[in-house]
Write a structure and sequence with these properties.
The chain is built from one helix and 30 strands. The chain has 409 residues and is mostly beta strands. It folds into two domains: 61 residues, no CATH class; 268 residues, Methylamine Dehydrogenase, Chain H. The strands form eight sheets. A five-stranded antiparallel beta sheet has the order 1-2-3-4-5. Strands 10-11-12-13 form a four-stranded antiparallel beta sheet, with no helix packed on it. The radius of gyration is 21 Å and the shape is globular. 40% of the residues are buried.
Length: 409
């Protein structure tokens, strides 16, 4: 129950334009207006419900958003359909970059990525890897009056990337970008995260499974199968590497699962609102920030008591990207209003909205903590935000639009 629907029904419907709804996936009927407005224009909606059956409704976009659509007589009602599980705009379907010192089996901590900028004032972004972009290096950003640095790359850099429809995880080398190995996992994998010591890669699979991969061998060592109503999606790992937090992305028993990584078992479950999507832990592991599909509000949970302690309201729908600054005093959230919202983590107030390129998605902090990098789902560019002044300072051209972004050493 996620992104664009590909319905397993007669060929006529396979040509329909795919859209989204938080209660179930839908598509516009081809007889409806090509560019429907938010006014009272009559439209026909075709839904694929959670039971795998088509239902046809009529009404306006206003009716749609107010849940006031009316059932319509149609030969399509009751026909079988299948919801796509592709979640192409979700946080962390790529792992954090692995690097020398924390590659397979090592227990040593990762080197600090918050080093000061070189004395020359140059800030290199050459190790920036947009997830959906074919080139490994973006143009460097450097101080005025200085010579641009020559691109370099670290041959030990590597990332793990999810192949959703192939039921696989790719282990990729980043210098140059190349495939190291393909790891089969449970069907429809969504998100991947490394434990702090990089010894284990945990991968959620929408088809009721959570995979544990040993990075020393690149083999799945355990698959935690859940009940059919559990649809693992969002994933976060505690800073001490003991717990994993997983959202069940569904409107049937939507929940937050707490998993003991050592025993590979579910130890607790917390009910959530419909379609909890991605989640992010504060750097100290004290809070979980949870995004929901087609919602402008995020839920903030205390990880000790597992209770909701606050709500964050974004400028637009917020379900694509989120990160914290280096001191965790501010959160940055990408929204459908083409902004990055700046949130005070102490008060949960929305401090500012930073205009960025159209359809922002992934967001990450640069290794120095000085800049934020934001991908666009529609534009071949990265937005660059000064993380001190919270001002857009420019854009960087890249080869293609992107949904996510990962940093390699």
């Amino acid at each position: 129950m996620t992104r664009s629907a590909l319905l397993a029904i007669p060929a006529l419907l396979l040509t329909l334009t795919a859209c989204q709804k938080s209660k179930s996936e839908y598509t516009f009927d081809p007889s409806s207006p090509a560019n429907p407005s938010e006014s009272g224009d009559p439209m026909t909606f075709v839904f694929c419900d959670s039971g795998g059956n088509l239902s046809v409704y009529t009404g306006s976009m206003s009716d749609f958003h107010s849940n006031s659509l009316q059932s319509a007589a149609s030969p399509l009602n009751g026909q079988a359909c299948q919801n796509s599980t592709n979640d192409s705009y979700t946080l962390y379907s790529m792992s954090q970059a692995t690097q020398a010192g924390v590659i397979p089996g090592s227990s040593s901590p990762a080197p600090s990525r918050a080093a000061a900028a070189p004395a020359s004032g140059r800030i290199s972004l050459v190790n920036t890897f947009p997830a959906a972009m074919p080139v490994p290096f973006g143009p460097p950003l450097f101080a005025s009056g200085t010579t641009p640095p020559s691109p370099t790359c670290d041959p030990t850099g590597a990332i793990y990337a999810v192949e959703h429809f192939s039921a696989a995880v790719l282990h990729l080398g980043t210098c140059p970008l190349h495939l190291i190995t393909t790891i089969p996992v449970a069907s429809h994998p969504l998100q991947a995260r490394l434990t702090p010591d990089a010894s284990t890669l945990i991968v959620t699979s929408y088809d009721s499974a959570i995979n544990f991969i040993d990075t020393a061998s690149d083999q799945v060592v355990y698959t935690l199968n859940t009940s059919p109503n559990i649809r693992p999606s969002g994933l976060a790992i505690s800073p001490d590497g003991k717990l994993a937090y997983v959202t069940s992305y569904f409107n049937v028993s939507p929940s937050l699962l707490i998993i003991n990584i050592a025993s590979r078992s579910i130890t607790n479950s917390v009910p959530l609102g419909n379609f909890p999507k991605s989640l992010l832990l504060t750097p100290d592991g004290a809070q979980l920030w949870i995004e929901f599909w087609e919602a402008n509000q995020l839920a903030v949970y205390d990880t000790l008591t597992l209770t909701q302690i606050g709500t964050v309201t974004a400028d637009g729908l917020a379900y694509s990207g989120m990160t914290f600054n280096s001191t965790a005093t501010k959160a940055y959230i990408t929204t459908t209003a083409n902004t990055v919202d700046v949130i005070d983590t102490a008060t949960l107030r929305n401090l500012a909205q930073i205009p960025v390129v159209h359809a922002p998605a992934g967001i990450t902090l640069s290794p120095t903590g000085s800049f934020l990098l934001v991908t666009s789902q529609t534009s071949s560019s990265l937005s660059v935000i000064d993380a001190q002044s919270d001002v857009l300072v420019g854009t960087l051209p890249v080869n293609a639009p992107g949904a996510e972004i990962a940093l390699a050493p």
